[in-house]
Design a protein that fits this description.
single chain, mainly alpha, two-stranded antiparallel ribbon, 4 helices, 2 strands
Length: 132
Amino acid sequence: MQRFETDLTDAQWTIIEPFIPQTRTKPRSIDMREVVNAILYVLKTGIQWRFLPKQFPFHYTSVNKYLRNFQALGVWDKMLQALVKKARRKAKRKTYPTMGIIDSQTVSHSNAGGIYGFDAHKKKRVSSGTSS
């Protein structure tokens, strides 16, 4: 049963659960699916951690600790890479892209003034966007 729009479905949890690091000693007393649901809730709604709804069965500091640990271990990056591969295979595309396109825009001036440089490719004097 989903309480919030951001809660993971069973299918979504099945995909990401293998990326959640296991403990080395005793089993966790906290439900990791609920931790991920809480992280997603905070990130999607933009609330402050301390305003995490009471429906989550643990203190917000625990959730924040897991978020930071997952970031340090590269869990989110590994999860994203796996999901991108899966999406590309589903779309019948190669697992890794064979080409990339980079686009840029030159700012020709800044109302605030500031440091200027020169974009040699576009042969334009450009502002860095900072003021002095």
